[in-house]
């Protein structure tokens, strides 16, 4: 008798991850906290525990006792397609992993499932497949000529050819939200910290490919990571500063994995660096804010994924004229802005729904400014703010606020925020 | 009537050493086969990030787990002792989320594990007694000694089970989300506990015997033993009971979790 092939493979899942799937106790804690489950009117298919249960069933049908005795039982293709939709309807914010009583590393699990499904021919979704072509061809997801990467640099900004510190701008700050790159470069110059940049040799960090399960496609993510790491080495840098939480997370966690080696430099978020400078008494604020109330949104990639919670708060608290208040859900319990995991590009309405809720979290505290430390968060929170018509709420990055408080003029920056 | 059997291995009446040993062996074989299948299934995964899937060797999973345990990992590098004590034994992750759920789970965990260990201990004492080695306490005396401890942990277990059932019945969110996968776990646990109380009640003539006459005590005990062996051991790898093995391993592998 010819037996059917299993409907699913175990590609991209580790042996430990397959075991983790069996460890779910279905306590339901993840369901209570999932931002996309909430934004989709509590669609049961989006509940993290439901996704785990379904994969567990697919594994049983394909490789369990019955499958061993009588051959695999097929999983209908429509079911797998629906499963794909549900796995991609997730910002990979990691809230489910934080509250998981079984300690399942859910972010890694969702990304592994996505990569598995992509290889199978299911997914990614929306505009996400374009990432492979765009990043592969242009080295960035915005179809921009690499020469444009430093087109924002004003005459007064001094970038060294080689230095101990390298600022990795990232595609979004260099090609879209240029105010962020402006602010970072001018702050470093103002503080007399020599730094270098990769310029047109900089490649996309490939966060978008990793998050959407496409990191093995055409080997782009690994090749880009290699080029970036080699470029940074060639610049003589031992410390690399990131003002983008997405790039930071990818460099810190994903690059070493993609390359199978430790990075020969330290990966530092700009807020961590500023925190250290504040401790050393090297920052003298010159332009106090006019008694503004500010709150801070933890980017998932900076906070929950890596554990950087205090430095951005410390920077904001130290700026004169800012009255810092916290939202109810902060730090490891923070609610995602909705932009991560490729959702902004793949499922924009879902991204907006989650952003609206996060903006409402902020509005409940009546701040003048909602700050964050990630260009993606900023962009999506701006969209959420506009959608709930909270025009008076300013959404701004910590580094931009830092620049302003240092008296740095950013008015000459052409910010292509969208 | 004098006590004629203890953990179920004397030749008294219809419950014999041979019967229990055969049942225990069958349960263990079924358990081991289930774990073999699980190890083969887990062993289809890769040994590390970005690597090709393995071919289902039973050694792949332990090897991958050992590697993950030794790896520095990201974010935190929690000490293994801290993980074992705080996250696995004391179940800190549940406590952080819900003190009531923690109380429910810890009572079930402590009650279940202690009763299991006490049963093993009683079994060992009777084995030594039957082997006429002249070591170990008299089974009757030892059983009397264990009596109050058994009672205490039985009630601790029962408390946890009652809370678990009440949550499933009276909290709408829990009730609506309950599926057969969950019910079988709780049903099995309840059955083992209740049959244990009844078997003990008949044997000792207490409230839990519900007035059933003593001759029914051995079959009641045998039934309890069979149910316990099936659910406590044999059924673990095939059901939600697998979390008793997989959850501590997951917490270990992820160094206490995020």
TrEMBL record, chain B:
MF (Gene Ontology): CoB--CoM heterodisulfide reductase activity
Domain of life where this protein originates: Archaea
Annotated EC: 1.8.98.1
Enzyme class: oxidoreductase
Keywords for the protein's UniProt record, in alphabetical order: Membrane, Oxidoreductase, Transmembrane, Transmembrane helix
Membrane-spanning parts: 12-33, 102-125, 145-166, 178-199, 219-238
Protein name in UniProt: CoB-CoM heterodisulfide reductase, subunit E
Organism, as annotated: Methanohalophilus mahii (strain ATCC 35705 / DSM 5219 / SLP)
